[in-house]
Structures are given as structure tokens and as C-alpha cells.
Amino acid sequence: MNIPFSPPFIDQAVIDEVLDSLRTNWITSGPKVKALEYELLNLTGSKATVCVNSWTSGAIMMLKWFGVGDGDEVIVPAYSYCATALCVLHCGAIPVMVDILDDFTIDPVMVKSKITSKTKAIIGVDIAGLPCNYNELREIVNDPAIKSIFKPVTAKQSELGRILLMSDAAHSIGATYEGLPAAQKCDVTIFSFHAVKNITTAEGGCICLNLPPPFDNQEEYSFLKIFSLNGQNKDAFAKSKGANWRYDILFKGFKMNMPDICAAIGLAQIRQYSNTLLPLRKNIFLKYCAAFKSYDWFIEPTGKDEIREGSYHLFPLRIKGITEAERDQIIESLVNWGVIVNVHFIPMPMLTYFKSIGYAIENYPNSYKQFACEISLPIYPQLSDPEVDFIIESVIGAVHQVVEINKLVKVLS
Ligand SMILES: *Cc1c(COP(=O)(O)O)cnc(C)c1O
């Protein structure tokens, strides 16, 4: 068998929706983006949803919107994709990295210990789709002692009067927290619609706004639409309607808008998400857990607990007591048998660029520990039952091969 890691979900409905965009002759931002924003509003119960051309763009835009800049600090976990920290660096601010808990989410105790008068935002990352401990993070940003050291320097910062709580929800569309869509837990939640994510627009993202009073989320929505379009007060779609050619540039915006032809893909997927695509992912997650449960090497990932349910974006298998080299050997066996797997993530302090600016993995021991024994297995709606069974057999075979051989080597040496 040959099992890819995470192919996009493209059925007839997706193809039809894209063709519809092509046939109407409107391919950039227009009605499909509006329709996708509306679906996202319904799915998340947010106060506003703004589609952009990637998670990364959305994060840079929101940090800039809040006025994060030179000398500011933003707390992020060491265990994430590079974009979580790069968006901060692109604003001239410093990503202050902290370690994670055993469920891969940011450690709230570490977050609290790193807050200074320069801290402007915290970005939690919902690794594999599991929401962070947002109640604890909310408590931290609302703590009167912490609020009292917050130093607002922009109008938005004064309006909020505290540290901005952001969610890197690149993995977690559809996740819940205390029975409600998890996106409602943070001021700003950003999804990614990159090709490998649960919902894709090839490249894309969505900013969910849930800003507390006195913010007017509708007003911020209108502002962000303009912000994502060079600061232009009228989009191309509005301009195309009759004698409406004159526009103005109101401020120095970015070019980060999502095209309709991309939105069409996500639109067709999201209509099937809650009822079909997400439950199919969950089934595979549960099948893996049931199949591996009896093996003492299996560390079960958290898909769900008393307060949270994730979006089953990844199946982050961890194998007890193995070294990084043994993990790599297991991956090699799996790939040889036709099962393509992945590792989520190489902690940022292990990457060349982050090392060159002073981060060191020694300061994040749990991030290293989780990384060293992690293998992300294929999990997506198109996987058939025989394919899932084949993956399970392959994993069991590869783990035993590597663990047994290494035991033997130890005995012989
Ligand atoms: C994919 C991903 C991103 C980046 O998303 P883009 O849409 O490609 O910018 C950010 N954070 C995490 C955790 C991701 O997995």
C-alpha cells in the first residue's frame, strides 16, 4: 500500500464550487469569501470572521493591529511551527518562548512566570487540534496584578487594557471548550487553511474576533478588510459594480486578502465538515487508540477531556522510552512499507535560524522530550478501513522491530 500523509479533500462538491467561481468570471475576493466568512461565523459563533491569505498573514496583521512593535514581548510555546514566532519577529517584537505540558499545549505556569511590563500578547497553540488551557490563560491576562503592569502605548492597547490573548488555531477548526466553539475563548483566534489542514483553501486563513467591550467587532471587521487590501476603502468587487471606480487609500495596509477561487474549495468542504469530515477524522483517531491501547509503549494522545474536545487534526503517536534516533528508525521502516508519516513539530529552538538568534532547546526540556518520541500518523476523511488497518499493523511491526533489535544490540554489546 501507498498511503500519503495528508492529501487535501477534493470531491465533486469542491470541484463544482471552484468551477462556479471560474464560470462567473469572478476569481478574486468577492461572494465566495463572504460566504466562507459566513460559514465560519456560524461554525465558531464568533463576533466577526475575516478571511486572509494565510495564518501567517493573519497573525502579522493582528499583532500590527494591536500595535505590537519594537521592544515588545509576545509569549509563545517553543513547540510549534515557525510561523508562531516569525509573525512576532516580523513586527520587531521578541517571541518569549516557554515550555509545554505533556498534552503539547503551552504551560500556563511558565507563561505567568515570563510576563513583564513589555508583554503585549500571548499566543497559545492548539497542537493537533487540542485547545490550550484557555480558562487559565484568561485568568492570567485578567489578573489585576498583571493588568497593573501592562503598559498600553496604542489606542487599541488602551481600549483592551490588558495583554491580548491569541490562539494559533491553525489545527483546531471545529474544536470545543466547555461545549462551546473554542474560538470564543480568545480575543483573536486564527485558523490556517493551508493544504494540509482540516479545511483548506490551498493557502488561506481566517481571523475570528471575539473582542470584549468596548470594542465593536463589526467596526474592527470593516477595518481589517481594508487593512488586508492595501488600506483601500473599496474592494475590486465593489468597484466592478457600475460607476464606482474612484477609491482612496486610507492608511498603509497589507495585501493579504483571500481570493474567491481559493475560498470556493474551503466553502464546499466546510458545508460537510461538522456532519461528515470531522466525525470521520474522530473515528480514525479512536480506532488508533483502541488498536494501540494494549501495548505498553503507547502514550495515548488527548483527543478529548472533561472540558475540551479537539479537532483530530493530527494523531500524535508517542512511544514510551525511545530515543530520537529510534524514533527516526521507526519512521524509516514505516516509509519503506508505504506509510508516509511526519513529526509535529521540531521545536523552534532546534532550527538553525532560531539557534542563531539565541534560542537553545536545553531551556525547553519537555518540548524536546515530546518531540523525540513523536510520530504523526495519517488521519484524514479519505482513509479507508483497510488503509487504517494497514497503518496500525505497520506501526506495531515497526515499533517492535526497532525496539527489539535495539534491545538485542544492548545485550550483545
Ligand atoms: C500550518 C501552521 C501555521 C501556518 O499556517 P499558514 O496558513 O501556512 O501561514 C501556523 N501555526 C501552526 C501550528 C501550523 O500548523
Automatic annotation (TrEMBL):
Name of the featured protein: DegT/DnrJ/EryC1/StrS family aminotransferase
InterPro entries xref list: DegT/StrS_aminotransferase (IPR000653), PyrdxlP-dep_Trfase (IPR015424), PyrdxlP-dep_Trfase_major (IPR015421), PyrdxlP-dep_Trfase_small (IPR015422)
Lineage, opening ranks: Bacteria, Pseudomonadati, Bacteroidota, Sphingobacteriia, Sphingobacteriales
Keyword Transferase: yes
Keyword Transferase (UniProt): yes
Keywords from the UniProt entry: Aminotransferase, Pyridoxal phosphate, Transferase
Family: Belongs to the DegT/DnrJ/EryC1 family.
Known EC number: 2.6.1.-
Organism: Pedobacter panaciterrae
Membrane-spanning ranges: none
GO molecular-function term, one example from the UniProt record: transaminase activity
